[in-house]
Sequence to fold (112 residues):
Amino acid sequence: MPFCPNCKFEYKPEVKFCPDCGEALVAELTSQEETEEPINYVQLRRVPSRLYAEMLQEALKKQSIPCLIQAEDAGLMLGTLGTATTLKVVIWVPQKLRAKAEEIAFQILGEI
Ligand SMILES: [Zn+2]
Fold:
């Protein structure tokens, strides 16, 4: 669907120019033109295994809090599964939602 880069309005495929401002329409708005500020992720918790991380992720998702799960040493995931138990997993959440995420983490994990 073509968009007007000025009005950010979506038009039907056969429309080539914006009826409002006369600007040539583009196939899609590039990320440069999007005004949304990038999400700043902060570290929420370190948990002893991916299982805890996934539990927490599930709970956060229910509260519509996005989160990232990062294995402390991703290299360990390749091949040597026997050492995976010592893997530490870090959970990242958007800074703005950290306080809420912290509450949820406490409910789910307690003082792990
Ligand atoms: Zn326009």
Observations:
- Residues 4, 6-7, 18, 20-21, 23 surround zinc ion (CB under 6 Å).
